[in-house]
User: What shape does this take?
Amino acid sequence: MTTTPEQLPSHDPFGEPDPAGFLLRTGAQTRLAWLPPFQSCLVSKYEDVLPLLKDPRLINSTMIYLFEQLSPEDQHKVRHVRRSIDMWMGGSTFENHARFQKQLKSSFSVSAVNALRPRVRELTNELLDAVVDKGSMDVRADLALPLPANVIATMLGIPVADRELLRNWSHNVLQIFQQGTMERLLAGQDAIREMEDYLRPIVAQRRTDPRDDLVTMFTEDEREGRITEDEIVANCVMLLFAAHQTTAAVITHGLALLMQHPEQMTLLRAEPDRMPSAVEEIVRFDGPNKAIARHALEPIIIGGHHFPAGQGFLLSLQYANRDPDVYTDPDRFDITRESAHRHLGFGMGTYYCLGAALARAQVDECLRIVLDRLPNLRPAEDEAPEMAPGRQFGHIYDKLPVRF
Ligand code: HEM
Assistant: This one.
C-alpha cells in the first residue's frame, strides 16, 4: 500500500532555531519523516541513504525543491537561475549527465590532482606568507576562500588576478542554496548573470587561442557540436562555485575542529601521515552538504513504505554520517577513526562528487602546512567567530579569527 505524507511524522526544519541539529534529532527518532516545505520525505539512516544515492530510479532534484517553495510569480522572477542550474553537468537527463562526467573525469582524476599538489603547496605558503608576521588571520578570508578559488581558476584558465570577483560571485551563488528567500535568490541570479558575462569573452578568446585549460576543452567540444556556449558558461559557473565554497568550508571547519580538540591537533602534528584519514573524519563529522534532494522516476519502497513515482526525498548525509549503526560513538571527532572513509559527505553513485580528489588534496596539503608553520595556532581570544547559513540546513563559518 502506498505511504502518504499523513502516515509519517511531519516536521518543518525552517521553523526550528537550529535546522541542522533538527536533522540529526529527527534521524535519531524516526527512519522516515515528512517535510512539508519541501514536499519531500526525509531519509536518514545510512542503510537507506546509501542504496538510494546509487539507485538509478532517483534523479537529482535540487532545483525542484528550491523552486517548489516559491509562488509562480517568484519562480518567473528567478527563471534564469533555474535555466542555468538545469544545465549544470548536462541537466536532468542521465545521458547528458554521463557525457559531462566522462568529459570532465580525467581533469579531476587522482593523478591529475596529484600533479596540482605542488601548486596547492605554493599557494598555501604564499597566503600564509602574507599574514605570518601579523600573528593573526581570519582563516576563511585569508586562506580557505582564496586557495580553492585560485586552484579552480587556474584549472579553468581564468586569470587568478580576478579571484576577488570570483569570491564575491560564488558567495552570492551560495545564497541560492541558503533557505531560499527571494532576496537571496535574486542576489544569486545577479551573480550568475555577471559571471556568465565575464566568462563569454574568455570562451571566445579560447576558440581562437587554445590553451591547456578546461575552457579550451569545452570549446573543442563545442566545435564538435556536443555543447553550446550557454552550457559552457553555465558549467564554468558551476565548477567555480562547486569547487570553491565546499572546499573553503572544509578547511575552515577542519581547523576549527582541530582547535576545539587540541589533543587531536597535537597527534596530527606528531604524525602528519594521519592527514588523509583526518580529512575524511572532518568531512564525516561536519561536511558542508547536509542533505541532498532527489525525485523518484519510478515507484520505490523504503523500509517497507511504498512511495509513488514523482515522490521527492531529502537524503540526510549529515545523519547518515553520524549513524550509530555504522560509527561507534558517532558524535566524537576522532581523526584515528578507521571507518571515517565510509562517509557519504561526497555523495555516492551517479552524482558522486567530481571534485572529491581535488578537495581531498587541497585540504590535506593546506592543513599540513598550517600545522607545520603555525605551531601556536589558537582561536583569537578577543574576536568571536561568525557563522552564516551554508548549503541547505547547515551553518558555515563566515569568519574564523585565529592567532599564532
Ligand atoms: C570538500 C569539498 C567538497 C564536498 C564536501 C563536496 C560534496 C559533494 C556532494 C555531496 C556531491 C553530491 C551531490 C548530489 O548527490 O546531489 C557533490 C557533487 C559534485 N561536486 Fe563536490 N564537493 C566538494 C568539492 C568539490 C570540488 C573541489 C569540485 C570541483 C570540481 C566539486 C564538484 C562537484 C560536481 C561537479 C558535482 C556534481 C557531480 C555530478 O553530478 O556528477 N566538488 N559534491
